[in-house]
Amino acid sequence: MSLIASVAGLGQLLTSGLTAAADLPPGDPYRADFSDTPVWLTLVKALFVFVYLMLSVVIVIWFERRVVGFMQQRPGPNRFGPGGVFQTLADGFKLVWKETFTPKNADAFMYNLAPIIAGSTAFISFAIIPMAGEVNLFGHRTPLQITDVPVSALLVLAVASVAAYSFVLAGWSSGSTYPLLGGLRSTAQVVSYEIAMGLSLVAVFIYAGSMQTSEIVAAQRSLWFVLPAFFSFIVFVICMFGETNRLPFDLAEGEGEIVGGYHTEYSGMKFGMFFLGEYVNMFTVSALATTLFFGGWQAPPPLTLINDGMLNHGWWGLLWFTIKLWLFMFFFVWVRGTLPRTRYDQFMAFGWKMLIPATLLWVMIVAFVRAAMLGWLGSATIGLGGRALPVAVLIVMGLVLVLALIAATLYERRRDRIEAARAQDRPTDVDPFAGGHPVPPLPGQTLVEPGSGRRPIARTSATSSQEDTRG
Fold first, then answer.
1. What are the C-alpha distances in Å from 389 to residues 221, 264, 300?
2. Which of residues 425 and 299 earns the better pLDDT score?
3. Strands (E), 150-278
4. Contact between residue 163 and residue 119 where contact means Cβ atoms under 8 Å apart
5. Residue 375's pLDDT is what?
6. What three-state secondary structure class fits 202?
7. pLDDT tens digits, 450-464
8. Where are the domains of the chain?
9. How much of the chain is in helix, strand and coil states, percent to nearest 5?
10. Per UniProt, what is the membrane topology (predicted)?
11. Which of 10, 233, 305, 471 is the residue whose CA sits 20 to 30 A from 314?
12. Residue 408 to residue 416: CA distance in whole angstroms
């Protein structure tokens, strides 16, 4: 939680010190107004969001299996229902009735608490996502959003910090080695890429002048932030896969290394809660990317000119929001069927050595350019959503950083290949006492007896004594 507080403090400092004081005009149709929203209507909207997410999860599981099957030239689910559309329901029914058990060496309380945390926290973040503008609902004029707070965008990171406990608790409480290793991997992965994700949001806070998701959407009514915040968007997309443990970053589930990861010892609906949490988190990060970079629920720019912006009001927003959301979900599925799993050490090195420093540099560039343009040119700079922003300069700087990140990655890969080539040039037979002190062999090397040329050691004294004892 200290990370969340640090990012929040940095974001508040930058947005208060570097943004213009120009607020949206009173009565702006994009501002979230909950004055006509009673408590019971908030509960109705919460139920609507829950049903929306559950139906979306059922559909996306079938969609993912069909699309990946098509990409791999196999049919996918095609038996239960037309096109196998009811297969997800059958799998869910099977999980409900499947026998659950608790391992003998497990900590029962923590073992049962971990899936509850994973399944419940996944829904919380969607409370601050604006799914549409103001709509008429049971005679009340209310935003299609459960709530909005001054630091709404950071709530997602706060919830992600809590959700990380489910990984480490599941791995530790199972009382088994492989789940413990999977839990440690997942926790380190999520915490590491949460830092870069939080820093990528700071630039968006500067552009919008606010951390409230409704006002961030409002600030994009003339230009979506995916253009000026191009580098932030690239970083956020990479972190999306790291945060949700999806290919190519599902490193907690390396079948050749640690079997099924932190939920190896879970079955039935306990496993189903982890499964549900993963897919709901995919929708959450996709919805956050839609809100922060693609105008949220607003229609694409050409459609906003039709009939005086009629397609940008009311329940139309839910349609545009859903379309953008599913484009990101298709991207998740596409990447899963395309890219192989990365190596864990490469993934962590990329996050700590490249992604986080590059994002810090990007934040400093944005802050400097923003302050310089406000101080030197004032209102003569390029306008974006009523706020002065040097859009072209930031686009160029973002592209330069992306190219620098690619170049650094290629350099690291080239250095790894050189190190591998040097390792092949090492002598295969080594004398452990050649330098006067016993040295263990490197991978691929064989020990030789001191002073015996290149004849390998047949067996050590310890091995000989063990064999004599057995004999």
1. 15, 50, 21
2. 299
3. none
4. no
5. 60
6. helix
7. 555 544 444 444 444
8. 2-345, 441-471
9. 65, 5, 30
10. Multi-pass membrane protein
11. 233
12. 12
Task: Tell whether the model's pLDDT for residue 329 goes beyond 70.
Answer: yes
Residue whose entry in the numeric block shows the structure tokens 């090195």: 349
pTM here is 0.77
Maximum C-alpha span of the chain: 95
Which residue has 């349609």 as its token pair? 319
Q: What are the structure tokens assigned to 85, written together?
A: 């559309």
Task: Retrieve residue 69's tokens.
Answer: 């099957």
| Residue 471 half-sphere exposure toward CB, CA atoms < 13 A | 6
Residue 101: partners with Cβ closer than 8 Å, 6 or more residues away: 267
Using CA atoms, how far residue 287 sits from 74, 119, 233, in Å, is: 30, 18, 13
Classify the phi-psi angles of 261: left when phi > 0, otherwise alpha if psi is within -120 to 50, otherwise beta: left
Alpha helices by DSSP H, listed for 72-176, are 87-97, 108-124, 152-173
Task: Kindly state the helix (H) or strand (E) to which residue 41 belongs, with its residue range.
Answer: helix 39-71
Segment 303-321 mean pLDDT:
78
Provide the Cα torsion 168, 171, 173, 177; round to 10°. -140
Which two structure tokens, joined as six digits, stand for 106? 């497990």
10 Å Cβ neighbour count for 2?
7
- 108 is written with which tokens? 């029962």
